Amino acid sequence: MCEIYVTVGVHFKAVRSLVHVARCLASKVVRLLRFGEPASQTLGRGETVAFLWEEMAATDEEVLETLEIHTVVHRKSTGGAWVGGSIAGHQFAALVFPEPALNPAWEVAGTSRISKLWLKRIDDGTVVYNWDRGEDVAPRNEVVDQLVSLLAAGLADLVWDSIPSKSGSG
């Protein structure tokens, strides 16, 4: 727990500045704790925060705010698109299709239109989930399960309804 002591008579602007700095620092710490940034993160002027990201919970909205799509490459030969991006301190790659698979068992969560999904924790490079028309690596914890669920629920719609792409072979 962090406490700030202010002496009586300190100018109001100085106190307000200290409170602002404390809020900014607290905000950075919370984001680090919730989204699995590197396990030891320098915040500035030598302050370092260490944590276990798995112990923090975040709402779906907070997690989705971290979603970044880096690449979308449509496959000419067999359809679908390879999508690469990051979400909540994890890197992902997914093979996403505009239509459902003939066999729902081939898709993440049965209805996602994702036939391959790979998730790696950016901090230490650990593969925390892998699906290739079936689960190869189960979600390592509840946070990863949440990420997989969120990607399964909306990645295909996002890719096929709103993101321009590059054509490629694959």
How do the strands and helices of this protein lay out in sequence?
Layout: H1 12-35, E1 40-44, E2 47-50, H2 60-64, E3 68-75, E4 81-87, E5 90-96, E6 114-121, E7 127-132, E8 135-137, H3 142-162, E9 166-168
Parallel strand pairs: 3-9
Antiparallel strand pairs: 1-2, 3-4, 4-5, 5-6, 6-7, 7-8
Structure characterization notes:
This protein is of the alpha+beta class and 170 residues long. It folds into 2 domains: 12-53, no CATH class; 60-168, no CATH class. 29% of the residues lie in helices and 30% in strands. The protein has helices at residues 12-35, 60-64, 142-162, and strands at residues 40-44, 47-50, 68-75, 81-87, 90-96, 114-121, 127-132, 135-137, 166-168. Strands 8-7-6-5-4-3-9 form a 7-stranded mixed sheet, covered by helices on one side. The protein is globular and about 35 Å long. Mean pLDDT is 76; it is low at 1-21 and 37-55.
Instruction: Tell how many strands the DSSP assignment holds.
Output: 9
Q: Determine the N-to-C terminus distance.
A: 51 Å
Tell me the major beta sheet: 7 strands, mixed
Number of domain modules: 2
- Strand-residue proportion: 25-35%
Helix content: 25-40%
